[in-house]
Each structure stands twice: as structure tokens, then as C-alpha cells.
Design goal:
single chain; alpha/beta; TIM Barrel; 8-stranded parallel β-barrel; 11 helices; 8 strands; binds 1,3-dihydroxyacetonephosphate
Length: 248
């Protein structure tokens, strides 16, 4: 019922030259994918990625967007700028931005609203730290992050939103959440959305898993009923690896 969505998050990797090589190699490898395929690239690679993927089944996303329409925000990028480039998706609230760049639930919500207002599709990242998991706070953290991110977002907009559940302790560590843990935790997020909106809206929402997802564990994760895709870091940087994930 929900179309799976596999998205690469390149993070701060790949120059324009590297983007050309990677995307050119990737296009034929993923052309028959059943899942929706997205690559989220650094700002400087977006134009190249959009140009190269024209007429293919690969969509392009950014890794962040500012909440203001324009103005004195040195170093920031607006939704209009991304739309003009032909970008479709935008990652918002990644744990690295929360951890290193002062991102809060409130700024996540402001960015989501700005993206939606311009027709960009947010991929909203939520997830607990190891400390929070060990402290029994998983549900509290995810309910809070999900509720705040979606504050004042109309029900109709949920069709344009993807949520990525990324346990912080599984990112770049090689430690994947077991398929069961990922599934059960995503269920908490879906139940939260059902309470905020309604059951049908929650059932239609796509929720990805992210955190050391790779060609070896993708099948098991994607077999779980609550997991609708993946947000892939490390394994999205090599075309053969990413294509194996996409074609799970
Ligand atoms: P890794 O796949 O490298 O663990 O990164 C996951 C991630 O943060 C995707 O946004």
C-alpha cells in the first residue's frame, strides 16, 4: 500500500566531479527499482545531480533548508533556491544537525513548514540517543520529536512528508537496530501520528529506518511491516552498494 522509499544521505561527501561519476554509475543500476529512489546531496552538488538524473527514476533532495523565505542569514539556503534547482525532497532535523548545529524541535518544525509552503517534500529525522534508550526514554523522546515536528501541519500535508527513524546510536557505527527493534519503534511513531491526526493518515505515512542500513541487512529490515524504506548514509556513497540496497 505504501510505496517504499530508499534515500541516500551523502552528508558532507562528494565534489561535483565525484557526483558526476557516482550518479552516472548509479542510473543504470537502479532503473528498475520498485522503491522510490532519492539521493540527498550537498548543496554544491544539487544542480549537477538534478541535471544528470533528468528523465530517470532518481529524485534529488537537499540535506537542509532554512525556515525564512530570504534575508540576513549568512550561509543559509532557502526553499525557493532549492525549488529553482529542481530539488524534490529535503532532509530536516538530522541528528547530526541536532547534535552539532543547534537544531531543535522548534527549528525542525519551522523548516518543515517552510519546505511544505514551497512544495518541497520533507524527510523529517527523529531518533533517540543511546543514553535515552538505556534510560527508558525512547517513547517519550519520539513522541516529543514527532509531535513538535508536525506542530500546526495540516493533515493533507502528511502525504508530502516522510519520517526517518534514525536511532543516533546506529548512525555510522555499524550497529543496526535489529529489525524487531526498528519495527517496534517505528510503530511508536506511527501511533503518535494516529493520535495527532487519525489512523488512515498514520497508515498512509511512509516511515524509513536509518542507521547502518546496508546491502547485508536491508532485506530483513524491509521485510518488517512498519518499515517503508531507508535513509542510507555510508552505503549510499558507492553505486554498487546503494543499488543493492535500492533493489533489496
Ligand atoms: P549510516 O548509514 O552511515 O549509518 O548513516 C545513516 C544516516 O545518518 C542517514 O541519514
Amino acid at each position: 500500500m505504501r510505496t517504499p522509499i530508499i534515500a541516500g544521505n551523502w552528508k558532507m561527501n562528494n565534489t561535483i566531479a565525484a557526483t558526476k561519476a557516482l550518479v552516472t554509475e548509479l542510473i543504470p543500476l537502479v532503473k528498475d527499482a520498485k522503491a522510490e529512489v532519492v539521493i540527498c546531496t550537498p548543496y554544491t552538488d544539487l544542480a549537477t545531480a538534478v541535471e544528470l538524473t533528468k528523465g530517470t527514476n532518481i529524485k534529488v533532495g537537499a540535506e537542509n533548508v532554512h525556515w525564512a523565505e530570504k534575508g540576513a542569514f549568512t550561509g543559509e539556503i532557502s526553499a525557493d533556491m532549492l525549488v529553482e534547482l529542481g530539488v524534490t525532497y529535503v532532509i530536516i532535523g538530522h541528528s547530526e544537525r541536532r547534535q552539532y548545529f543547534g537544531e531543535t524541535d522548534q527549528t525542525v518544525n519551522a523548516r518543515v513548514k517552510a519546505a511544505l509552503a514551497k512544495g518541497l517534500k520533507p524527510i523529517i529525522c527523529v531518533g533517540e540517543t543511546l543514553e535515552e534508550r538505556e534510560g527508558g526514554l525512547v517513547e517519550e523522546v519520539l513522541v516529543r520529536q514527532t509531535t513538535e515536528a508536525l506542530k500546526d501541519i495540516a493533515k493533507e500535508e502528511l502525504a508530502n512528508i516522510v519520517i526517518a527513524y534514525e536511532p543516533v546510536w546506529a548512525i555510522g557505527t555499524g550497529k543496526t537496530a535489529t529489525a524487531e527493534v526498528a519495527n517496534d519503534t517505528i510503530k511508536i511513531i506511527r501511533d503518535t501520528v494516529a493520535k495527532l491526526y487519525d489512523k488512515a493518515t498514520a497508515e498512509a505515512l511512509r516511515i524509513q529506518y536509518g542507521g547502518s542500513m546496508n546491502p547485508k541487512n536491508v532485506k530483513e529490515l524491509m521485510a518488517m511491516p512498519e518499515i517503508d524504506g531507508g535513509l542510507i548514509g555510508g552505503a549510499s556513497l558507492k553505486a554498487p552498494d546503494f543499488s543493492l540496497v535500492v533493489n533489496y
